[in-house]
Design brief:
It contains 5 helices and 6 strands, in the order ββααββαββαα. It is α+β, with helices and mostly antiparallel strands and about 140 residues long. The protein folds into 2 domains: about 60 residues; about 60 residues, Classic Zinc Finger (Double Stranded RNA Binding Domain). It has a two-stranded antiparallel ribbon with strand order 1-2. Helix 1 packs across helix 2. It is found in: Nucleus.
Length: about 140
């Protein structure tokens, strides 16, 4: 973990490496570590408390990821982005595959989403526009 100076904290603490040896640098710990635990100890933590805090944050991160997986069960196999509905995931996958299943019957233009084809038909490939002088 990288330590940064904390605004409003004036207590210097000596940080310990994983093997318990003092690394010889007095550091201030970020207040965000304290706020994440729900307890306020004046802006500073000992190295043991920081380790405990890191472990708690890791547990909370895993719980959040599990919750996200339940809320959005459909994951993109290419990038891992998650979706609530399988059709939204399929639509997203087309960004990775380049698939364009929606084809204009008049000009052959292809689109990855039906909305793109619909917009094209309304604005670019209308019969009334082709026949008018404005189209050319």
């Amino acid at each position: 973990m990288s330590h940064v100076l904390s605004a409003g904290c004036d207590k210097d603490l000596t940080c310990f490496q994983d093997d318990g040896e003092v690394n010889g640098r007095a550091m201030k710990l970020p207040r965000v570590w304290i706020l994440g635990s729900g307890t306020d100890v004046g802006g500073c933590l000992s190295s043991a408390a920081v380790l405990q805090q890191q472990q708690q944050l890791q547990v909370e991160k895993q719980q959040h990821q599990h919750s996200l997986a339940e809320q959005r069960p459909y994951a993109c196999p290419y990038c891992g982005r998650r979706f609530k509905r399988s059709d939204h995931r399929r639509q997203h996958e087309r960004l990775h595959t380049g698939e364009k299943p929606y084809v204009c019957t008049k000009c052959g233009a292809k689109y990855p989403q039906q909305s793109g084809l619909h917009y094209h038909k309304l604005n670019s490939c209308r019969d009334d526009r082709r026949d008018s002088a404005e189209y050319f």
